[in-house]
Each structure stands twice: as C-alpha cells, then as structure tokens.
Design goal:
- The chain is an all-alpha fold.
- Helix content is about 95%, strand content about 0%.
- The protein contains one helix and no strands.
- The longest helix has about 90 residues, at about 5-95.
- The termini are far apart.
- About 0% of the residues are buried.
C-alpha cells in the first residue's frame, strides 16, 4: 500500500468517525432544542391569546367607565340647570 492510499484511507475514516460522532453527540442536543422551541412557541401563543382576552376586558371596562362619566356629566348639567332655575325664581320673587 503506498503512502497516498494510506492517507486517503485515514482521512476517509476520520470523516466517517466525525460524522457518526457528530450525530451521536448532536442528536440529543437537537432534540432538547426542539422541545425547548416547541415549549417557547406554546408559551408565546398562550401569551398572545391571553393578551387578546385582556384587551377585550380592558375595552369593556373602558366602556363602563365612559358610560359612568357620561351619566355624571348629565347629572351635573341637570343640577346646574336646576340651580340656575332656583336662583332665577328666588331673584324674581324678591327674597
């Protein structure tokens, strides 16, 4: 066997050993990474769904607050109009 054939054979077996060793070493790492990414995506989807529910809840609370504010403004306008009317009648009656 000449020297070049020996070098080619050694290089071939080094490459084969590297591939097999890489698969043996990297397969558990890649599986763990896959599980991690699946869990991460599930968490992100859950956060997006819950943020949508939170947004709807905040929107409904805002609508309730706006309705309460509208009622308070109407009551205040009514009370001011009533006060003005009482002042006019008290001035007109000469008290």
């Amino acid at each position: 066997m000449d020297f070049n054939m020996l070098v080619a054979t050694v290089i071939f077996w080094i490459i084969i050993a590297s591939i097999v060793g890489g698969v043996i070493l990297l397969r558990p790492v890649s599986r763990s990474l896959g599980h991690f990414l699946d869990d991460w995506i599930a968490i992100r989807r859950a956060e997006q769904e819950s943020s949508g529910e939170q947004f709807q809840e905040l929107a409904s609370r805002l609508a309730v607050l706006e309705g309460g504010q509208r009622r308070l403004l109407e009551q205040q306008e009514f009370m001011e109009a009533l006060k003005d009317k009482e002042e006019l009648t008290s001035v007109g009656s000469g008290d």
